[in-house]
Amino acid sequence: MSNNVYITKVSAFMPGNPIDNDTMESVLGFVGNKPSRSRHIVLRNNGIKYRHYALDPETGEATYSSAQLAAEAIKGLVDEHFSLDDMQSLAAGAAIPDQIIPGHAVMVHGELKNEPCEIVSTSGSCMVGMTAMKYAYLSILSGTTNNAVAAASETVSSVLHARNFQNESDARVAELELRPEIAFEKDFLRWMLSDGAGAVLLENKPRADGISLRIDWIDMYSFANELDTCMYSGAEKLTDGSLKGWSQMNPADWLAYSVFCIKQDVRHLNERVVKYTLSEPLRRTVEKRNLSADSIDWFLPHISSEYFRMKMSAGLDDINFSIDQGRWFTNLTTKGNTGAVSIYVMLEELVNSGKLKKDQSLLCYIPESARFSGAFMHLTVV
Question: Which chain regions cross the lipid bilayer (predicted)?
Answer without folding.
Answer: none
